[in-house]
Structures are given as C-alpha cells and as structure tokens.
Design goal:
By secondary structure, the protein is an alpha+beta fold. The protein has 15 helices and 13 strands. It is globular, with a radius of gyration of 23 Å.
Amino acid sequence: MLKGGEGQATAGWPRVIAHADMDAFYASVEQLDRPELRGKPVIVGGRSARGVVTSASYEARRYGVRAAMPSAQARQLCPQAVFVAGRMGRYAEVARTLRAVFDEFSPVVEPLSLDEAFLDLTGAERLLGPPLVIGRELKRAVRERTGLVVSVGIAPVKMAAKILSDLAKPDGLLLIGPEDLPEFLAGLPVERLWGVGRVTLARLNQAGIRTMGDLAARDAAELRSRFGASGAYLHQLAQGRDARPVVGDWQRKSYGEENTFAHDLARDALALRRALIAHSEAIGRRLRADAVRARTITLKLKTARGLGGGRYPVITRSHTLGTASDDTAVIARTALALLARVGDGDKIRLAGIHAHNLERRDVRQPDLFEGWQAASKARRLNQALDLLAQRFGAEAVTRGLTRVERAAPSRRVK
C-alpha cells in the first residue's frame, strides 16, 4: 500500500499534501555543529532534577529516551548521554534556511514548529514531476542546504501525511493514495489520531476501540453520544476524511513561548516576571518577522501542585487589546497585568505566553489615537533589538533582564 515507484500518478487525488519533519532536529543541529558529538547519544534539555528532554539523537533513542521525558529518567536509561543546554537562536537560524527550501517547492507552506511543516503540492506535478520525485528532491535540497535529514510523508489528507512522515523516520519517504488510505489507517493504533491524548485514549479503550479500524466501524451517532462532537470528528479522521487545507503560516492561529523552571517559583517572584518578559521578547520578534500583529494575549501558568500521573493544574488569563500589536513592551505589560490578576496560591512550575487573534501588519489601518511619536520610538527600538538578536543571538541584548533559569530550552508552540 505504501508506494515506492516514481511513476505514482495523482490524477484521482483531491489534494496532494506533504508533511516534512526534521529528524531529531535540535540534537542533529548540535551534532552538525560539533563533530565530536556525531555517533554519540546526545540529549538537548535541562540537566537539573526538574529538567525535561527537548530532543534526543537517534543514538539516545535506542535506549528509550524520548522528548518530554524527565531528564533524570533519561540519564538512568542512558548514563553515557551527552546533555546539551540548547541554542534556540541557532535552531531558528537553521529553520529559516529550511523554510526557504520549502518555499521553493510550494507556495503554500504551513509550519507546525521550527522543524516541521505541511506543503500543498497540489498541481506541482506538472512542474516538478510525480510526488515521490518531488519528495526525493525535497529531501536532497534540505540535506544540501542545511546538512540535516528530513523525513517526508505524502498523502491526499493532512492527517495521513503526518502519520507517514513519522513512520518514515529516520531519513525516509512514504506515499499513499486515496484508494489505499482506508485499509492503511484501519490497522493503526487509535492514538495515532490527532486529538487522542491520554484521557481520550483511555475512554476509547474502555469502549473497545483500539485501532482506527475499530473507530471507523462504529456508528457515528453512538460516538457522538459517547464523546460529543469530538467523537464524530475522530470518526471521520479514522475513515480517512480530513477536509483541512494547508494554511499559509501568516494565517496561523497563535504564537507561543513557554518553559518549565528548574525550581518552583512564587507567583510574586522576580524570576517569574523576568521569564514572562523574555517570552514577550521572543514572541514580539517572531510576530515582527512574520509581519503580523496580535490582538489577544494569554498567560498560561502550570502550578506545582501535582494531580498524579504527571499532571498539574493549569491557570490561564487572557486580555484583548484595543489595537493589535507586535510591540514587545505591549505584550510584556499585558502579560504582567494578567499575572497580577492571579491570586496567591501554589507555586509555579511552568509559565507561558500565547499571542493570538492575529492580523497581517500590512492591512492594519493607522489608529489616530495610538500616539505616533511613542509608536515610532518603540518601533525603532524593536528593530534595533531584532537586528542585534539576529547577528549576535537572542540573549545578546535584553530589556534589563538577567538570564532566566530554565529546566529546558523554551518551547515554541503554535
């Protein structure tokens, strides 16, 4: 069912969608830049007791090390692993080169993170050849331009393309057509579906649903009764029906930055405020780079009071601005004001900021009451800091901050 011939035609496909996913991206960049690490188990993440694995090389994965695993557990599984703190500025630099490659193969690219993206290849066959040929050329271009390896899945729907890229790892390329899609999906575990987390998986298993085939065979009305609207949606996905288009990244839903602290912080701790300002700096820089502004800012806090099973209570607060902004100072002031709305209580183990309700910068109408002099001054400051960060790294110049103590590199989320 998984095709390997170069002549695979797409005449009957509603769409041709590729999902490209870099292999062990952060760890691979470290091995690329430091030849002495090649062939060794490398873990990017925090070394402290609170540390979390952000990325693990395939040499480390052979020992069972996985992303999001506590660093202490990873160290027990692979004592000889080399821990690296992580360099988000460097990863972002490589990601920009990667994005330039993607743009050469499709005018519609939807990034999911720094190291993975959907590409709409519909119609590209007339210019670039059959999809497997395009996939091989994409892999070759990525390797030549970045020195790294990417795995690619190609399918008529987004969900299947993403599953295929994961199955293709490392350094693989898989394709499946619409005629084979239902049979292919039927044998996969149901947790492969988007939206099936730990809680949903337990409920599905209790209902006797363990594979996508089990889910696809159930009555849609029964699933809606048991699981609500999400049950009907998962039923469609299990049958290979996924109408979501590839959406260009300027239309992305949100920008986010969050990290887990090496030590729990009080809600009035200066270190917590510093972390929020650092996140605001990173989000503002990303908004400006993509020429978009955000109207809504959301604060996310994860408290240190455990609920069992590795779960912790999450607090969120949001505020919608009168005028959309990409100004770091506006984002930071809003986040700190939201923090002030959170009462005293449990200490904080994770803090994050999300900027959403987006609009393109070039379509925004000027606000006569914005205060052009102040806005111009802020714009010049942001531009200067962006240039310094691009040349010397994100932490070369900051807004009166000391280095933020983190258990792992800040995680960018969409």
